[in-house]
Design brief:
The structure holds two protein chains of two kinds. Chain A is mostly beta strands. Helices cover about 5% and strands about 40% of the residues of chain A. Classes of the chains: A mainly beta, B alpha/beta. The complex binds zinc ion. Zinc ion binds near residues 35, 37 and 54 of chain A.
Chain lengths: ~130, ~400
Amino acid sequence: MNGDRPSVAEDVRGVPDYDDWRELLEAGILMGSQCGSCGQTTATPHRRCIECGSEHLNGTELPTTGEVYSETTINVTPTGFDEPYQIAIIDLDGTRLTARIAGTVEIADRVRFSDTITTNGCPAPVFEPIE
Amino acid sequence: MARACVVGAGMTHFGVHDKPLEELFAEAALSAIHDAGVDGDEIDSLYFGNAMGGITENDTHLAPKLASYLGLQGIPCQRFEDACATSSNAFKHAVQSVEAGVHDVVLVGGAERCTPETGLDTKEMTRTFASASHRTYEQPLGLTFPGVFALLTKRHMYEYGTTEEQLAEVAVKNHDHGRYNPRAHFGGQVDVAEVLDSPIVADPFHLMDCCPFSDGASAVIVVSDELAESFRGEPVDVTGVGHRTDTVPIADKNAPVETTAAKEAATEAYEQAGISADNIDFAEVHDCFTGAEVIAIEALGLVPEGEGGPVTKRGETHLSGEMPVNPSGGLKAKGHPIGATGTAQIVELTEQLRGEVGERQVPDATKAVAHNLGGDTATAVVTVMEAGQ
Ligand SMILES: [Zn+2]
């Protein structure tokens, strides 16, 4: 998806923020936020490290394949959403991210980042099962 | 040693109410005031909880508004919002204020309307509740609150072998308890098959695994330990209040299934009270969904990790069991008017520890714990109360 370049997320200047995250997400890259002090990585931005409190956070490119940590199918949907859909927490080599699922998965299934959906202008990741 | 005492408690029926928040809250507040035997002008402060009135009823700045309706304008009044743990946090601050000598007599409570009486249907209310999930990383996915607890519960089932039947037993038990609570939204004899046959909301939760949308209010009068004997209401001691938070969004939590904030809040509350989970006679826990009760009793240390399901199936958490959980019927049967839930748990603890709840009385109860979660378990308030000496 993102070719051979290793450092697109690492090119983000300064502490990664929501704009960086969504722009890269829409470009097919999962940008995590990694602590320069303790190495803690989260799949979405924070302004200080949730582990050690350091302000030195850098963008880091997350793997686009992972394993389903948990999942549920939402049958009673909120306003703005209609047909039932599956949501899963994905474990990307130790960093977790919540995503939509295209298809059907169970816990421990392997999945890959395949697409985004956009709700009210806000994009979110979609994963699909790896056959 | 008590940090503070509750000398009055009251609540409305939880269910469907077609009346303004100020009238709902006044009913609960007056009932607490009369129970305590407090004169209106003795109340020094109002600590009030409402989670969603700004969204559901276009109603904000509620503390002075509701105080005015009760003739309490003038005193310091404050409103709290921490999703479903809203009024527990109001209670925590009230306890701190009398303990520190800032106030002597404090009215604490919460009120909320969540039924279609607000003009919002199930889809709209589902969206409103989801406002407690992360604005940019969860809401665009369509994550709902049944969905949040479904994610935790599914993982619990995967790790420990908890079954849908065991979850259904929580609903069966709490509906059974609700039969003995005249203020409960629901109560009755249901069986596991009925729960499992009800429509799926977010798997593994069927409709009957979920608490209802309820309207209601609850209130207590909190006073300092030294003043407790000077009121008519029988005092019940508040010996510990633990309050912890966890990371949002849910994917960033280190150990989502253990509900770390609740575990730590329980440890803090037990330490303040100088007791352990073994000393607890009964618990009121945050069973917004059946799976949440299974996880809650483990987080409180009342049962070993992973044993919440089997223990429930064996009947140990029934009123007739060794460790009654949610004798009030819990959120599941009593109802869950968000901002009123925390102090409603305190009302149940107070009345149980006084020994005045009739058919649902836990015999000889002297120590009890209340467990209230906010949002995706990112807020937890755990309170220990003990019968007065
Ligand atoms: Zn760090």
